[in-house]
Fold these 2 entries.
Entry 1:
Amino acid sequence: MMTTAALTLSAVLFAIGVFGVLTRRNAISLLVSVEIVMNAATINLVAFSRIHEPEAMTGQVFALLGIGIAACEAAVGLALILAVYRRFGSTDVDTIDLLRG
Amino acid sequence: MDTQEVLFVAFGGVAVLGALYAVATRSLLRAIVALGAFLTAIAGEFYLLAADFIAVVQIFVYVGGIVVLMLFALMLSASGKRHPLAAVDRPALGAVLAYAVGAGLLWATWSTELPAAGPDPADALGSLGRALLGAQLWPFELIGLILLASVIAALSIVRGERQ
């Protein structure tokens, strides 16, 4: 029962994150939405870790690696956002259209 | 419902409300603070799912690291002040697509017969430590390398633009 509840919560949070990614225009808000999506995925990993070989802890190791990757992604993403802001004076993703033909 | 289930629903409610506020609010600062509340609630869920260590790492890395990093990025770019956010852009289209994704996931979850969760290992922290330094040693070491590479990348991106 707990597993289904966790998967349900994860699906709802994933949908909320997708909504944010699709509708936000500020780059930092996009990063906030992506973090929500990644946390929804991590809940799934931890929940499945309990039904598939709980002693091997594979799901929890995956969750740890996912959190590490999320930290890398946030650091590089925010550095890129700061570099873009210095160049364009804005973090709105619609104003950065240098590659538009 | 026993205490564990009540706590699970309570943390889940905080997580959903925090996530909704974070994606819908007009103020970027409030979105980041709501993200902090959301991440803390998720740490509570991890604890209830017998993942104590993941819960602590979640607090340290996300609430203590990523949220503070986002606040610094907001401060250094002042993107909230000079460019007031439109709350959301094309909300109807986004809502329809997000609803479709969520409905598909919920259908897949509820139509699948999942095996019951086994008994949680007695020494969960010990099992995790043995897994990290045993069968999963290579991924564990590689994640350190990736973290180092991303720190160097972030520093060079931020410094390079200044010159």
Note: Residues 2-88 of chain A form a domain with the Helix Hairpins fold (CATH 1.10.287.3510).
Entry 2:
Amino acid sequence: MRAWLYLITAAVAGAVVTTPALLVFVLGGGSVDDALFVALATLMLVSALLVVTMRDIIRCGLAMIVAFLALAGIYVIVGAPLVAATQVIVYIGAISVLILFAIMLTQSKAAPARLVFQTQAAPAAVAAVILVVLVALAVGATDWGETATRVRLATDTLARVLFDDYVLPFEVVSVLLLAAVIGGVFIAKREKEPG
Amino acid sequence: MGLANSLDSYLILASALFGIGTFGFLARRNAISMLMSIELMLNGVNLAIVAFGSFIPDLMADGSIIALMVIAVAAAEATVGLAIIIAIYRNRQTPLVDEYDAMRR
């Protein structure tokens, strides 16, 4: 019985993700890129909504991994394959695993998550919707001076710029990561003060 | 249609992701859920940066590199944030932020 339930859930999820893409592809006359973009965007938004609304926090973490993966696909479509690879390695490989471990370390049976949301959840939803609408209006009203098509940059060009113009920020980020690692270990490992 | 070739669609998608993260950060009770929402917001900003780098001629190489820097800073932020949450959990035995009320009693 459980297996059938999972299969039906997977089929419904696949239909939800692929239907807008097929609509764009067949009815709207879009290209394959458009269909892929719409499918990945739908997948990302749905799983992001699941992240902020689901009751079981470990499932929220797994949905977050799906959202990160869809976003990596969108990076590939927009023409930044290096950022997509970094997204997979850092976000899915490191940050998600870190968050899943933190979930396992901090969720106790004594504090069941009956109430998922704060009392201000409804005003928070209104505020978020207003924010998105405002940003969308601003985006629509602005002329960015953009090119007609997206440009894919070669990775060796990126590397040249990174190690020529951006050497100082690169080194500062490495020092920041070192400080964060040391600080994280210090804060998480500190024992109770004696006396 | 040309959805994949227009900067506006990427920016609106990024703002939608940022808005979902905002809602999660304001509405969830669990500290780790709030941290995950912050990660979603950072991803939305990152998508906007990469889209600008891919469409604006003046920002061609800079967009991807700034996005890489943002990813590194997000990793640092997640490390320290989770360490702080674990340290608080050790003291208070709860991950729910509305029970962290030591400073307003």
Note: The CA atoms of residues 14 and 47 of chain B lie 6 Å apart.
